[in-house]
Amino acid sequence: MKIRRFLLFGLVITSFGLFAPKVRAQFVYVANQFDSTISIYSLDPNSGALTQIGSPFSVGQQTIAVAIDPTSAFLYVTTANSQLFGYKIDDNTGELKAVPNSPFATRFAPDSIAIDPLGRYIYVPGSDDDDVTGYKIDRTNGALTTLAGSPFASGNFPISVAVDPTADFVYVAMHGGSTVWAYSLDESTGAIAETSSSPFPTGTNPNAVAVNPTGKFVYVANYNGNSVSGFSIDHKTGTLTSIPGSPFTSGVQPFFVAIDPAGKFVYVPNSNDNTVSGYSINQKTGALTPVPASPFATGSGPHAAAVDPSGRFLYVVNFNNNGGSVSAYSIDCDGFLTPVPGSPFKAGNGPDWIAITKTK
Fold first, then answer.
1. What does the CA dihedral 59, 61, 65, 70 come to, rounded to 10 degrees?
2. For residue range 79-108, what is the model confidence (pLDDT) as tens digits?
3. What gap in Å lies between CA 221 and CA 200, rounded to an integer?
């Protein structure tokens, strides 16, 4: 009887192993502006190394920004000829298949993409049109429908957009006006409306905006101010209040803001001195303190950056590095960066943006 029970227990364990949830492979997508392509990589979860999958995927004319929805089901990419392409991501191979009716029209110079945390709406700034276009995502197939009232008016040269984790507010950096605008988000329609306290002054020519995953802070990279502005968020009104010590010194011409999933660290590529600055976030005040040995060397002309969903690795795309590359780093508990073996990894010509899927 004891043997029989043991065998039965073994069969149960084996059965659970057979029917355990499948872990999705993890993929990295890099938009190569001058090639009009997307490079696709598989990500080794142990080492952080990237392995390119197939040939770069051709997309429209001069790919600019790329974003992945929160479920990692769909990928969206903007192009210089005012188009927004949508693709279904194959869970097993990372391959891309166009969603129905793709591409979709956008405004001129769509320099970034933001998707709300529930994967319902997409927002794309029209940098030369001084507005923001919003779309509703069909969750069954990834197709887009322009929101009623869109495009929504903005300030001078909106260049970057971010949605806070509660989906209550949208923040847009105005490169031409040296401000960041706050919008309230209507969750039932996706429409956005500027808040009464907006806009808020930043440093000179902000190029990127990001919201901390805790939803407490906003950070803005000031391209010609060589600094990072930090703000705390009023969760009732969306009002931004400058964090003590802000703006924080960066390298030369900071281009992007990447925050790790736990909201502990901020990484800012400095496009004109070939470095990435790392900061730890004070969880109470939002103040930034350089991590040990920051800044860290990158390739030539670092643009966008992304931390993988596990928070273990940072990836920076190098826009000017002999046709383009991706620098990869492991992140330690203090935010210190160590190059991943094999880094940098080859990309296309003029890599400008990067996005990473989740494993589940």
1. -30
2. 999 999 999 999 999 999 999 999 999 999
3. 14
Q: Are 213 and 262 in contact (CB under 8 A)?
A: yes
Q: Which two tokens stand for residue 164?
A: 């806070």
- Nearest C-alpha neighbor of 212 from the set 173, 253, 259, 180: 259
Q: Which pLDDT tens digit goes with each residue over 106-152?
A: 999 899 999 999 999 999 999 889 999 999 999 999 999 999 999 99
Omega before residue 125 within 30° of 0, cis: no
Contacts of 336 by beta carbon, 8 Å cutoff, 6+ apart = 278, 291, 292, 293
Query: Strands 351-356 and 337-339: what pairing?
Result: unpaired
Give me the pLDDT at residue 128, please. 86
- Residues 299, 285: Cα–Cα separation, whole Å: 33
Rg (CA), the chain: 21
Alpha helix ranges (H) inside the chain: 2-18
Under DSSP, is residue 17 helix (H, G, I), strand (E, B) or coil? helix
Sign of CA dihedral 271, 178, 83, 212: positive
The C-alpha atoms of residue 197 and residue 168 are separated, in whole angstroms, by 15
**Mean pLDDT over each residue of the chain, to the nearest integer:** 92
| Three-class DSSP category at 331 | strand
Alpha carbon distances (Å) from 157 to 6, 230, 235, 341: 69, 20, 26, 39
Can you identify the CATH homologous superfamily of domain 26-356? YVTN repeat-like/Quinoprotein amine dehydrogenase (2.130.10.10)
Taking CB atoms within 8 Å and a gap of at least 24, the contacts of 201-206 are 202/173, 202/178, 202/229, 202/247, 203/178, 203/227, 203/228, 203/229, 203/247, 204/178, 205/175, 205/176, 205/178, 206/159, 206/160, 206/173, 206/174, 206/175, 206/178, 206/179, 206/180
pTM over 0.70: yes
Would you say 119 and 137 are in contact if contact means Cβ atoms under 8 Å apart? yes
- The percentage of residues in the chain with a pLDDT greater than 90, rounded to a whole number, is 89
End-to-end CA distance of the chain: 41
Is 90 exceeded by the pLDDT of residue 246? yes
Cα separation of 44 and 330, whole Å? 12
